[in-house]
Amino acid sequence: VKLRPLKPDEMLIKVAYTGICATDLAIYTGDCSFVKSGQIKYPCRIGHEWSGVVCECGSEVKNFKVGDRVITDNGVSCGYCEKCLEGDFGHCLNNKSVGTIDCWDGCFAEYMYMPERHTYHIDDAMTLKEAALVEPMSIALAGIKKYDITSDSRVAIVGTGAIGIGAAVLAKHLGAKQVIIIGRGKAKLESALKCGIDA
Length: 199
Known about the structure:
two-stranded antiparallel sheet; five-stranded antiparallel β-sheet
């Protein structure tokens, strides 16, 4: 397969690890509200939890070099609408979601294109495999941050997927006195206990 030329602000990134989200499976089977509403159109390349290594940089890329280990945002702004020109990429009028709605090609591939503005360095202490979990952990963190967790807190998390277990682990990390996770799958509940959840 011939790769297209890089845009000046883009990087070509070799995918190292990807997660498989329930949304990916629902898009694959077609059993997804986004498919039914027409927000996802086939063919599309799914996958949005990932890590990789930069293998080529466009001429205007300043903060990355070949060999850098990276993760990216799940949304890719157009770079030219009114909001993007203001630097407000989160409110882009033409945003594409990686591997999902109005699809920017997802990470179930050997390589990804990504603008520099949506790319982040991975700390040296983190492995590429661990970094692929940053996306679901960021969702868990967004939920946990809504609460003032202290050493007196007792926290109950409903759900034993990656985000639920991640939220439970974060609650423990933030010092909660007791963290309970609620779910139906024995294997997932056992996984949560292995992660240090109380019950």
